[in-house]
Amino acid sequence: MGVCPSFTLVGKGLNERQLLIENFPLYFVRRYRMENQPFWKAKTALICYILLFAGILVGSIILALILLGMGLDFQELTFPSALLALPINEGIILGITLLFAKQKGAGLRQLGLKKPSLKIILIASLAALFLLLLATGISVIEEVILGPDPEAGLLVDAILPRDSLQLIAMLGISLALVGPAEELAFRGFIQRGFETSFGKTTGLLVASVLFGLLHGLNSLRSIVPVTVVSLFLGYFWQKTDGNTVASAWVHGLYDAVSIVLVYFAYV
Questions:
Q1: CB environment 62-98: b (16+ within 10 A), e (fewer)
Q2: CA 211 to chain centre
Q3: 6-10, 46-50, 239-243: segment of lowest average pLDDT
Q4: What is the distance between the alpha carbons of residues 82 and 96, in angstroms, rounded to a whole number?
Q5: What's the confidence (pLDDT) of residue 33?
Q6: Among 23, 69, 88, 231, which residue is least crowded by beta carbons within 10 Å?
Q7: What do you get for the CA distance between the two ends of the chain, in Å?
Q8: Which has the closest alpha carbon to 124: 226, 233, 4, 6?
Q9: pLDDT score at 202
Q10: pTM for the predicted model, two decimal places
Q11: Sign (positive/negative) of CA torsion 214, 219, 221, 225?
């Protein structure tokens, strides 16, 4: 007359039990990973940022005092002061970030250090050129509205290589140190912390504004264009599933091309 309901229920129960037994280890592995995944929130990210800001200020003051003690003037150097300042500042940024990450039990993988695909690298390269054009456009608009930037000459002098060897050194620092250090800090740690507390959109906005304010130490006129660039960097980081290597390549290439343009414009 048909299949006996009792045998159907028994068979169904056995199938579900078998599936549970087969997936039992995987279930607990996934649960363990979720519960033990390192994470941090906005408060930790903000403290990290404040220490980065203070560390860069202190590092810059110490460097200036050392040069003054040696009887050297920043404007009389035969090389860009950035050759000295950048390794110190980026070392401070990287050191503080890694200390905070270690305290939270996060390794480089959790900060987004993972291999990008060739497609992502190509897109990142095009993005760097686009961002350079965008930042230049914003700077031009600022100059039209506010007049010439009184700090522009000092900024150019600080990054301008005097010869080809200095140019190569500045390009290496930009690609191998500036991009990776700042992206590990601001995307891998700070933006991630703000996103954990406030969500992706607000986290992106807050981290980008803080990034722009930090670059106000170079020039007040840098705040707006750098903030806009940071918004794109943070969005690109989000779209690549938190791949800090990808955003570091955009960042480093952006700085490198900027230095090349300055070099050929002034030397």
A1: ebeeebeeeeeebeeeeebbbbebbeebbebbbebbb
A2: 9
A3: 6-10
A4: 20
A5: 42
A6: 69
A7: 96
A8: 233
A9: 98
A10: 0.85
A11: negative
